[in-house]
Amino acid sequence: MNALKFNWRTLVVILGIIFLLIYPLLGASSYMRHLFVLFFIWAIVAANWNLLMGYAGINSLGNIGFLAIGGYVSGILAKTFGLSPWLTIPIGGLTTCLLVTVFLGLPALRLSGIYIALLTLIFADSLPSILTQTREITGGAMGLHEIPPFFPGMTKTGAYYVSLTFFLVILYIVYRVIHSSSGLAFVALRDSENFAYCLGVNKFRERLKVFAIASFLTGIAGGVYVHALGDISPTTLGIEPFLLTIAMIELGGVGTFAGPILGAAVIVFGNEFLRLADTLRLTLLGALICLTILFFPGGLMQLVDQVERWVIRLLTKRRDLSKKE
Amino acid sequence: MLEVRNLDSFYGELQVLRQVSLHVDAGEVVALFGPNGHGKSTLLKAISGLHPPTAGSVKFQGEEIAKLPAHKIVERGLVYIPEERHLFPDMTVMENLLLGAYPPRARKRVKSNLEFVFHIFPKLEMRQKQLCSTLSGGEARMVAIARGLMSETGLLLVDEPSIGLSPGMRKAVFEAIAAINRERGITILIVEQEIENALALSNRFYLLKKGQIAFERPTDQVDIAEIEKAYF
Amino acid sequence: METIVNTLISGLISGSLYAAMALGLTIIYGVSRVFNFGHGVVALIGAYLTWMALQSFGVPFLPATLFALAAMFLLGVGIYRLAIKPLLQKPNWEFSTVLFMLGAGILLENVLLQLFGPRVKSIPTFLTGRLIIGFVEINGHELALIAIVIIFIILLSLFFKYTRLGQAMRAVAQSIPGARVVGIDIDRIFSYTFGLAFLVTGFSGILLGTKYYLNPHIGWEWMVKGFVITTFGGLGSTTGAIYAAIILGVVEALATLYLGAIWVWPIWFGMFMIILLLRPQGLLGGRL
What we know:
The complex is a heterotrimer of chains A (325), B (232) and C (288).
Chain A lengths: L1 H21 L7 H26 L7 H18 L4 H26 L2 H21 L1 H4 L17 H23 L2 H11 L1 H6 L4 H27 L9 H14 L5 H17 L6 H15 L3 H26 L1
Chain B lengths: L1 E10 L2 E11 L4 E5 L6 H8 L7 E6 L2 E2 L5 H6 L2 E4 L11 H8 L3 H4 L2 H11 L1 H6 L9 H13 L5 E5 L7 H18 L2 E5 L3 H7 L2 E6 L2 E7 L5 H7 L2
Parallel strand pairs in B: 3-8, 3-9, 6-7, 7-8
Antiparallel strand pairs in B: 1-2, 1-4, 4-5, 9-10
Helix pairs in contact in B: 3-7
Chain C lengths: L1 H31 L6 H17 L5 H28 L4 H24 L13 E4 L2 E4 H23 L1 H11 L1 H6 L4 H26 L6 H16 L4 H21 L5 H15 L10
Antiparallel strand pairs in C: 1-2
Helix pairs in contact in C: 1-5, 1-8, 1-9, 1-10, 2-3, 2-4, 2-8, 2-9, 3-4, 3-8, 5-6, 6-8, 9-10, 9-11, 10-11
């Protein structure tokens, strides 16, 4: 039965990747290609956030700030100093990693639970005021515009494939982190700090590591964001993208690898439909988050697991019956 | 007064109590012995509703209380005095004692209960304005017992009152417990590691081993060697 | 000299309003260890309800306030019963309540937006005129605000010290097992605590609404300030929160005077980081 379980999941992933690879060739509209780029970026953000929140048990609320730092650094270097995005994106990632590790990772070593939530929220919340004070470089409240694309003369399809590559590579890294010894250490730490300690898990080192990885990869996503979309402004740091990402993780299933990706898909594409609801959109989003947490804490992945178990039971029964005959 | 029948209790997957039955009659002092980690505290917590039992019955004054929440059980006069004391650290001794009188029934008798408490623990009267976080271990133990007495109790479950105390303090605590029973007629079920001291003040005792009652004896037919053997 | 004194006074005024605002956050956290990430919107709801009673129903100020406070109490009890209580029974309650209240915050904020629209509103001041003593000038209304906050804090501390319910709340804040041993119904106390904290927070919203303006989005700004104050004073310590609010209010006024308003937030953030790194238990620590 495990083979069956393994097989269909692998199959879905392979089919999904093939679909994403050929999708633009199927005559997808420019609008849909744009939505997919958004999906790739937010899935990276959500997956890395979930690495902190769902696996390492670090209650971070500041991950949109990581995205913004990576985006601004890469955007400014490319636009103002004319560097190639292929150089500025990693620089953006490293800068994010450095800042986050110093300002959040190190203090977070001594803090627990709610303090980390407060620290990270206030960290992200202080970025817009820094941006408005550094208007000459960052564009202030107006933000940065006309940021150079990945390569000159890039089309929507080009942006699609570059973001898809980042999406696949980064999610693969996240997957490997989850299934590495560090990933296991995170889970041990989350479930029982004492037990993890007995296993010889160094809490400080693992926490720093996960902050470094998640912030670096989210910073990279920020670079992808600015060079694929062309602009960034303090509204990215507003309450809406923040809650949308929380909703992705919660709705998809916190603490699962596939959950946040699934959640990102539902929210990015669903949000477009929600635009029809206009001003009610955020009301519905808030209600969605509340209802998911209250009644559906395992998210969509819980539903997938349930359906899978149900199907397997059905298949097993049939096979048993055929054996008897 | 207290009638426990076939009590089962779990911590997660782990079964701590198996089919425990015991009874305590009005006015008695009953001791509960047994090796550490074999379920003595769990039994007291199960009876007092702090860690509700999974199965079995607990009757107090003829009424079933096994399914009641902890505060309802305290309101009926069954009071648990935890080994960990669980005082309110940033409140004074007096505030702690008055909170002991939280149940409505107890509030009406605050004055006489306070008099009794200061009578058996004269030291607390001097310390009444002191914050509990600044008390010594022995004084904190006294406050814990005194706070339980303030709840207008009929049956006191006392969990290892002498643990961690100096010999002099231990003696004072045992004397106080004897006085509670003698002067107020309060029924007592006491868990203790100090077997000899506990035997001196109780009528009967039970021995709890591996979550089951191993045996029960009146204290006048006691054989200490038998108890000690049960510990190994 | 003149400017310094007047700046200090305006710092004291905003500090005392911040104190009132941070109290509700501290009370909930102190008793139940739930951190209310919908705090700002709760304060706003109190203010909007009062505004509605004043403007739409035309009732006088006092009954309007009482109506709002009663509604806030019920809202607090309702949110606890419907959502927080079930979440507390699950293992990851500490963060699930955070996310839930964030979601509820954005939900309620947008309900306010639907009901009252985006336009700025304000609650009329109670007093007009100025008090002038030498070179010190105080707005009559602001003097009244300080007096109200002081009276309010005294009433609250009397409540916690001398009433049975208040004592039970402190007992739960200091030791939940101890509270259970003396026969306190924890669930009931949590429920009243949410009611009380929402009432206090709503009241602070009314006061803030008379000094500053109201719009459905201002709550987040209030909330983040409340977070810094409660952390600075020590999570769950009411006295700490009051001192922290006054200190931050005065620092804010001085920073505005000498460095410019743009530096206010970086200074708040800096003080927050320093206290977190040096004394995570906050200025005073201690419990309710």
